[in-house]
UniProtKB/TrEMBL annotation:
Source species of the chain: Suricata suricatta
InterPro entries hit by this protein: MORN
Repeat listed as a keyword: yes
Bias kind Polar residues: ranges: 501-531
Residues annotated as signal peptide: none
Skewed-composition ranges (Basic and acidic residues): 645-658
Role this protein plays: May function as part of the axonemal radial spoke complex 3 (RS3). Radial spoke complexes are important for ciliary motility.
Localization: Cell projection, Cilium, Flagellum; Cytoplasm, Cytoskeleton, Cilium axoneme
GO terms for cellular component: axoneme; motile cilium
Record key words, sorted: Cell projection, Cilium, Cytoplasm, Cytoskeleton, Flagellum, Repeat
Protein name: Radial spoke head 10 homolog B
Amino acid sequence: MFKCGTHPVSYIGHWCHGKRHGKGSIYYNQEGTSWYEGDWVYNTKSGWGVRCYKSGNIYEGHWENNVRHGEGRMRWLTASEEYMGRWEKGVQNGFGTHSWFLKRIPHSQYPLRNEYMGQFVNGVRHGRGKFYYASGAMYDGEWVSNKKHGMGRLTFKNGRVYDGAFSNDHVVEFPNLEIEFLSHLDLSEESSFRDWCHRTSISPEITRKLDGTGSTSVLGSGIELNLSFLLNKYPEKDQAEEKKQVEYAVLRNITELRRIYSFYSSLGCDCSLDNTFLMTKLHFWRFLKDCRFHHHNVTLADMDRVLSANNDIPVEEIHSPFTTIFLRTFLNYLLQLAYHIHHKEFQNRSPSLFLCFTKLMTENIQPNAGYVKGSLFSEQQRTLYSMSYISKSWEIYTAYCRPRATPPHELSMKVRHFLWMLKDFKMINKELTPVKFVEVIAEDNPFMHDGIDSNFELELVFLEFFEALLSFALISVTDQMTKSYLNFLNDNLPGDKHGSPDQNIQDRGSSGGTSQESDLQDGSTKSSSSKLGPVLDLSKMRRAKPKIRKSLSDERISKLNLKSPGKGLTFFWSQNGEKEKSKDEPEEKLTVWVTSMYIFFVTMLFPAHKREETLKEKVEQDRLHAAAAAQRQRLENQELEARLSSLREEGETRRQDAEADVTVIKEPWDAPSSSVTMSPPKEDTVVPQTTKSVMSKKKKK
């Protein structure tokens, strides 16, 4: 611990060669309202850390050379804004999500929040991105310097769609159309909208198209069902009646469907200012399983593919748990699934679509909706803590998915892939056996096990994968492991000193949360590889029980906890630092459960994944090195072969020259000068007899 004598600055944490290095916390004022806690590298903020500014604004994420760099979340509490995504040298760069929170307009059914999700360049919206307006409108397309520019699609609140070119934040086809105004305008206020259209000289046809007054839907212009795909499956003469009857069926159940949508959308989310939430695919999966949709011989993965084919969903988003689902989209999905499940049963009866939807409501939705099953959303406190492991678990899930052999060739995980993953992680042992693995997967899945055989070709969506991990945690972590870890933490807590910076750490720790039972969420480690992290975090939280707080908004599941899971655990400690006896059994069970989750995810699963990734990187590096060495060897061999070939050619040339020299010497006309000089025979010339006589005379001599 270091206290500056001239400035109200104090630091507690790790050191190396006289410099802040490792894990540590620094406070920049006496009140403890301005601080940083996280990783240090020789006096610079580098790694993962949380920075709370005097204004109350908070950044949590990665740092490099004292600036925000990498993945991180910044919350401007004073401006009611939030950004989560990539940073480069202190500014937003890369993919991210920026939200602007607004006050709720009376009688609005939409959460009042503008949100952009897409590419950033130097702090501005630039590239491809989606903008969700507070009114319910949505733009998906190209951006240039914070303005819609290029090709894009604008979906209005009533479900109407404009698809075309934009220039300088305006529709190219209608340059007088103020898109920003339309996006914030409540189109249900017909008089104000028509007055504005009159002032801007918008034609009556365009007006009817935009405000939905030309719609014949019995649900009104606020909710426009997209039935074109389903109606095309019926004869043209029956389409009008099919549409009218199914809209009446939805209208009769609209109040209950709204309630169901709101209920499932709020699961695992923080409190919002207007108590309104947006449903994600993770919530939708839980709704489908609770209502037993998957008992109709169709898996959740199959349902995702059915909906993607009907709604032009990109391949990479088919199984994404973070995809947003509006109320109108929720209703369309129910109709499409109702048709997919029951259309064969009612194909010879009319109105067929009406009968399909009615049977689904009667047999599946009404008896089961709201009775939450599974291990993720069953208890609010556990849900909030479990959400801190969502991001890293999604990373692991996608790393072990395989592309499907049939279209649309999206990535999916089968049960055998899941089992192989745990085997690679060395987590299949005497506690978590293959038999128990199958039992957990088959608990609420009729396709997994029939009592004799197990189906390892079954596809798992992320919800099923993550809930299985939560169940595996309770199996893998024994009571003895939990008790040993608690005893270790209790024995290693530092003593309490009044007025010490440790008090400031504790005070600060109880003010930085953003959710209900925020101390439980603050229980996620900034670095799962840190061994000291949990001890430090427990020491600063030991005086206070978790406090219930409200965040600024209903964050999406994808943003619930950017910080790496396992920042520490919440336990209940008395004023003198001793472990406080639990007041009731549920509280004690929660503490044990939190400990089990921490041990499983932070000390077992995540390190195993990191070890496997490191091993894969090492194998890949070795493969690249081996390939490079083989390439070098091939080049050397080629060079050596070329040299040998050259030497062989040179030797052959010399041999041929030597043979030619020997041949020339043997010719009689190349004899020494003492010999008789003779001319070589000419072609077609007969050698005269005199030659023989001369030679014979020489012999006689």
